[in-house]
Amino acid sequence: MDHYTSESFRLTQSIGFAIGKARNLLVAEIDAALKDLGITTQQMGILLSMRHGEATTPFELSKLLGIDTGLMTRMLDKLEDKGLLERSRSLEDRRVVNLKLTEQGEAVAAHVPEIVPMVLNARVRNFTKSEFKELNRLLRKFLED
């Protein structure tokens, strides 16, 4: 079923526009909340993904977070410069770079769950439990391939 046609399409009325605007709003609010930790929203995604064992290489992080490899390299450089992660070559395959959070990186990542839920809760404060559950369901459905 087509929900848009060339005749009826209006950028500001499209779902893509709303999702993009919602993303930008959340990123700005989360970035502001993370300022004291010295990280950005994208850097937070890297740290938490590593902390929870969801990714251990730049390629895995790029795929998981939907970030191109060039930008991923630059973000990893910044996190390494801040002393939050270390890179090492795999002993089995020298082409593979393994990532590990430093003690400082673990400490920063440990503070994120104290900060970000407050931002997200403030943004969805007017949602009922069922509306929140439905939004979550619909977004996951939207992301399915």
TrEMBL record:
PROSITE patterns, alphabetized: HTH_MARR_2 (PS50995)
Keyword Iron recorded: no
Keywords: DNA-binding, Transcription, Transcription regulation
GO terms of molecular function: DNA binding; DNA-binding transcription factor activity
Domain HTH marR-type, residue spans: 8-144
SUPFAM superfamilies named among the record's database cross-references: Winged helix' DNA-binding domain
Protein's name according to its UniProt entry: MarR family transcriptional regulator
PANTHER family per UniProt: TRANSCRIPTIONAL REGULATOR, MARR (PTHR42756), TRANSCRIPTIONAL REPRESSOR OF EMRAB OPERON (PTHR42756:SF1)
SMART domains on file: HTH_MARR (SM00347)
Taxonomic placement: Bacteria, Pseudomonadati, Pseudomonadota, Betaproteobacteria, Burkholderiales
